Fold these 3 entries.
Entry 1:
Amino acid sequence: MKILIVMIGGFLGSISRFGIGKWLMTDSSFPTGTFVINIIGCFALGWLLTTAAMKKNIPTNIVLLAGTGFLGSFTTFSTFSVETIKLIHSGMTSVAVLYVLGSIFIGLLFTFFGWKTALLTRREGGEA
């Protein structure tokens, strides 16, 4: 059953990534779609896992569906890596460096924001 739950989440995450990636496609050499998708995923996974850890009553299947399945296939390290190599191969090393550093640091920042949002939401909801 757990495999089916992850598969459903993975299907939904991958088609969402495809659609949003097409929607965000630009003529710029910077891979905006993958960058934005990965940053959204960082925030969402930071929030989800923090919320799940704080609220012990969130079913494991929800975390598997949304975290492992959806967000696992929504975000993409492999595309990030291939796009970085393509930028370097095309002579756009400075854009590649910006992409790598921006993805790492902004990704960590948004993961922190997701974690902090979950903590603040818990406090505002009256739980301590």
Entry 2:
Amino acid sequence: MKIFGSAVPVLLLLVAPAVMNAENHKRGEKLFKAYCWGCHHQTAEAFGPSFKTIANKRDRSEIIAQIADPDHTYRQLGYTRNSMPAFDDLNASQLEALTDYIMQFKDKK
């Protein structure tokens, strides 16, 4: 019993990230549906670029900046105009979850 007891913390360290990733994925998907799906699709071009395109073209900090303050980042990202609204009501945790969700569509190399 003592051996099993000492293995539990190791098992938790291995399982916890997967559980946290699944939870963050659900949060990100929920945020996508609430804020993004009117203009973006996960893998197909819509009014805005797909998450696949965004994930392959941008890093995490650029994605977060564009979501939080597009009026000040669109030119730096190479866009000639900005049609994206600012989502300044999203907190840091929500921005991270949404960015995690977007980044899952990046091509595997």
Entry 3:
Amino acid sequence: MKKTLAWAVTVVTAATCTLGAALPAVAADTTTPPAATSAAVTSAAPGSTFDTSRLSPDLKALADQALAQLPADWQQHRDAATAAFGIHDTQWAALRDSVINPGDYQCESNALRDYQRTLLQGANFEPLFFLYFLGVFDMPTYDALYFGSESKSNTFGVNGEYTNELTSESKDLKRFWDIHSDDIQLVPMHGRELFSSPERLAPVVSLMYGIPEENRKVALGLASLIIDVINLDPVLQGGDNPFFTLNAFAFSEKGAPHPAGIGDRIVMGDGILEAMRAIGLGATAPRAILAHEFGHHVQYEDDLIGDRDGTPEGSRRVELMADAYGTYFLTHSRGEALNAKRLLDSEKSFYQVGDCAFSSPGHHGTPNQRFATASWAAGVANDAANQGHILPSLTFDALFETKLPDLVKPDATN
């Protein structure tokens, strides 16, 4: 069984594999010559070499040093690590045929998409493409997943503003759901903290590129060069640009423990928390994201992922189910007890993160489907005759499976 990494929030520029597709759209607002942009896109393709001849002198010097120090098989190690940890599995695996008709569904621009398009405005594309080529935008994920751990000293949010809220909710979630959850760690994902020094970054560099421990000097040198490239562009804010950490995910090793003992965890990135604040959803969305991610752990523990995982329909079922588990907890009198109407009003915007990637094995469901699922789950909590009773997780799943065909009907027929 492969490792499982469930991505909660799919934002176009959140992950390394997206960068090649996202940057040209922004390039229209820059002064980068078309020829240079085209060359950069080609150079940045995974598995290729990187032509540094068109780079500015400062960046070319750093890039040449970095490429000279990388092991010959660094790309294979990077790709193997990505596959082993499932980092891109749900969103960026090979596209598969889908029976879903895109013409029947609604997907429109929204505040979150508008916000994420602003993150790289004014950025220099040369260092961006080189960082993409090296896989640097995945490094905060590796750091949180492989080296992070739950600790009383952890903070959530760029300024720690979500620390109390999320740590308290994590405890509530463990009390609420009837699964084994004592071992689920809540771990932050920070950007600038990781890129603060070569010593801090070097273990991630070694992990990604397959650099042996005895070659720590090489890892330190590469880490230093990566930090220098990041610092060439003030738009990247030394790693604090939300671009680096614009995601949240759940990870489980159930059935396939990793030799390093990573264990079960939920990772919350500073970037996604900042994004929710920026679009006016900071009061509810962070809790909704965490509740959704914990819903994935309910699925793992109850073996609810099923053999349909890996197809668009299977992924949609898994993600909508996690939405349902999350909203049920948030609105239940023994959960967060949030006002259902106010929560759902907020989630009209929050669930706009739904996508129209109908043929992608990481399809999360359309915005309308995600909101319909949340509305249904809130109704299950609020309409219960016994408000103090928490449905067993498997009983709740049975209700969800019965309702699912209605939740995924084309928008035109809802």
